[in-house]
Amino acid sequence: MKPTRLLCLFAGTDALALCLVWLFVPGTERQIATMEEMNYVFGVSTRRHMDYQIKEVAPWCFYHYILRQKGLRDLDPLYRYA
C-alpha cells in the first residue's frame, strides 16, 4: 500500500472514531464530585444522548462556530443535577 493511501486510511478511521466518540460517550462540562452526580450522567440512555448531540449540539456548533452567528440561545442541559 502506498504511503498516501495508508495516510488516508488512518485519517478516515480517526474521523470515524471522532464521530463515534462524540455520539456514544457521555461527557460532562464540569467536575463530577459525587457518585450521585455520576448516576445522573450515566443514567441517561444512549439514544437520548445521541438525539441530544444530533438535534441540539450539532446545529448550535454549526451556527456558532461555522456561521459565526451571535446571540444564540444557550443549550438546555441534558443532565439535571439534584
SSE layout:
Elements: H1 3-24, H2 35-43, H3 46-66
Quick take:
The chain is mostly helical and 82 residues long.
Helix content: 55-70%
Task: Write down the overall mean pLDDT.
Answer: 88
Spatial extent as radius of gyration: 17 Å
Question: Helices and strands, in N-to-C order?
Answer: HHH
Q: List segments where confidence is low: pLDDT < 50 over at least 5 consecutive residues.
A: none
Quote the distance from N terminus to C terminus: 55 Å
Describe this structure in words.
The protein is mainly alpha-helical. 63% of the residues lie in helices and 0% in strands. It is built from 3 helices and no strands. It has helices at residues 3-24, 35-43, 46-66. The longest helix is centred in the N-terminal third of the chain and has 22 residues, at 3-24. The protein is extended. The N and C termini lie far apart (55 Å). The mean pLDDT is 88.
What attributes characterize this protein structure?
3 helices; 63% helix; single chain; 0% strand; extended; mainly alpha; 82 residues
